Amino acid sequence: MTSTISNMFDTTLYAPGELTELVRGCDRKLLEQMTPMVRRGSMTLDLRRVERIDAAGIAVLISLYGAARDAGHDFRVANASARVEEILKLVGLDRILLSQNAVCKSHSGNCFVCPAA
C-alpha cells in the first residue's frame, strides 16, 4: 500500500493509497498514521477513492480534527465521493471538514510516494 503526500501552500494533502473504505477495521490504522501528521501541521485528507464510511470512520475524522485543532492546525477532507459527502452532510460535518478546493496536481510542490505502515 502506498500513500501520496503533497505540500500545497501551508497545508499537506495526504492521499492514502488503497483506502477504499473508512469503516471499522481500517479506522485505527488511519488514525495511527495521521495523528502525528496533524499534530505537526495542517492536513487535508484526500478521500477520492473512499466509497464507504461508517460511524468508526466518522469518529476517526472527528479525532483527527480535534488533534489538529488542539495543536493549532487545520484538518479537512477533500475530493469526497458523493456518497461520503452525503453522509458527512447528514451528520453535520460538512461545514467543518469538507474542503472544496484541494486537488492533488503533479506541479503543486513537492510530491512523493511513501510506503504506508
Chart the SSEs and their pairings:
Layout: E1 2-8, E2 11-16, E3 21-22, H1 27-40, E4 42-46, E5 52-53, H2 55-70, E6 75-78, H3 82-90, H4 94-97, E7 98-99, E8 111-115
Parallel strand pairs: 2-4, 3-5, 4-6, 6-7
Antiparallel strand pairs: 1-2, 1-8
Keywords:
117 residues; alpha/beta; Transcription Regulator spoIIAA; two-stranded parallel ribbon; 8 strands; 37% helix; globular; disordered C terminus
Strand order of the largest sheet: 7-6-4-2-1-8
Number of DSSP-assigned strands: 8
Which fold name corresponds to the CATH topology?
A: Transcription Regulator spoIIAA
Low-confidence stretches: 102-117
Distance between the termini: 8 Å
Order of helices and strands: EEEHEEHEHHEE
* CATH class descriptor name: Alpha Beta
Q: Architecture, according to CATH? A: 2-Layer Sandwich
Q: Which class best fits the helix and strand makeup? A: alpha/beta
What is the count of distinct domains?
1
Can you give the helix content as a percent range? 25-40%
